[in-house]
Amino acid sequence: MTLDMQKLEPLLGMMVTEIGAAANAALVLVGDKLGLYKALAAHGPLSSDDLAKRTNTAPRYVREWLSAQAASGFVTYDAATNIFSMSPEQAAVLADDDSVVNMTGGFYALAAVYADEPRLTEAFKIGKGIGWGEHCNCLFCGTERFFRPGYKGHLVAEWLPALDGVVAKLENGAKVADIGCGHGASTLIMAQAFPKSHFTGFDFHEPSVVRAREVGAGHKNLAFEQARAQDFPGGDFDLVTIFDALHDMGDPVGAARRVRECLKDDGTFMVVEPMAGDSLQENLNPVGRVYYAFSTNVCVPASLNQEVGAALGAQAGETKLTQVLREGGFTRIRRAVSAPFNMVLEARP
Questions:
Q1: Is pLDDT of 211 > 90?
Q2: What is the DSSP annotation of 77-96?
Q3: Rounded CA gap, 242 and 233, in Å?
Q4: CATH (residue range 148-279+302-348)
Q5: pLDDT tens column, 216-270
Q6: Where are the domains of the chain?
Q7: How far apart are the first and last CA of the chain?
Q8: Burial class of residue 286 in the structure, from the number of CB atoms within 10 Å of its CB (0-12 exposed, 13-18 middle, 19+ buried)
Q9: Average model confidence (pLDDT) across the chain
Q10: Domain 8-94 has what CATH class?
Q11: Distance of CA 101 to CAs 93, 98, 147, 276, Å?
Q12: Which is nearest to 294 in space by CA: 119, 81, 70, 143?
């Protein structure tokens, strides 16, 4: 076999980049857990020794860590002074927990992906699913930390206002259910923004519900309950939401049907899903690459572990999602918002 060097060299270069990215992912966790990013952002420029002193860490480790971060472009190195710093953009992505562009949560989810690889490899052989609760615990906190910045930046400011008449109802006092709420980031953001409304987050994963209750403690208009999407309790809801979770469900049609049953006739079902086109070709881009990877590792296995096992995948696309909603009893469906990472669908009876 003769190799075409013009094709081989770019591929090898990409593989070097991939190996570097994978190896540095663990170092992002180190930097986040030890407060290295935060200290450098708050007090930099700093030498490696100074950063080690401020974080009570070993200087030799910190020097090598900073070198890797500089090579990755995560921190800035000044060769003339041999010191390191973080630009406002670097700090927003890595050091500021309140930033709407903070990305560190994704790296915690990656830790779970690698920890669970043996189980996934075995599942490939026999086609079985892997339950959400069977994953490494860092997946749950990583998922919440990854999605929370986007919800914080867009949910109240853009997504809810794009729905017909919903904000007015929330301001006056509405009854809301947030299905598949996980650690409750989306539910809490809405509850804080609309104190006259009452919000109940539902999730089938008990440890996540426990964590959500801890996070939401003290908010009188907020509650969390353990329940499945296809049979959660309650009724007469003005708004029901599902954030980045419908495609994970084994029976998404059953979930949509249950939402229709418990929704008021003039109520709204808001479905937030990963941004995707309807064909593979449309999704062959950096965002689609991330979602297909996590879908293979987490989303499809989770769905296959449940009854029906529809396995929509994280790149299901608007056409397939619309079909699910129609089969669940909704007749008026539209895309309310498009964003780089998400699409927001509005469904009405």
A1: yes
A2: EETTTTEEE--HHHHHHHT-
A3: 15
A4: 3.40.50.150
A5: 999 999 999 999 999 999 999 999 999 999 999 999 999 999 999 999 999 999 9
A6: 8-94, 148-279+302-348
A7: 60
A8: exposed
A9: 96
A10: mainly alpha
A11: 5, 9, 10, 20
A12: 143
